[in-house]
């Protein structure tokens, strides 16, 4: 398994919106996303900073995707 990619918060939000997640609100620098089937997560957006690999792993678990599925979404 390769290392997790380094992504910014805005990139992660765009990827999740591409698979049906909707931005339900934003409080400060945190964007709350929810899928119609009930899955939800929070993505921090800080200008000039990337999301840490551990947090990215947590976001992927929250949205119930496998690592490989997420990598495939990035490559699209």
Automatic annotation (TrEMBL):
UniProt cross-references to SUPFAM superfamilies, sorted A to Z: YcfA/nrd intein domain
Pfam family, one: HicA_toxin
Amino-acid biosynthesis found in the keyword field: no
Origin superkingdom: Bacteria
A molecular function GO annotation: endonuclease activity
Similarity section: Belongs to the HicA mRNA interferase family.
PANTHER family: ADDICTION MODULE TOXIN, HICA FAMILY, SSR1766 PROTEIN
Name recorded for this polypeptide: Type II toxin-antitoxin system HicA family toxin
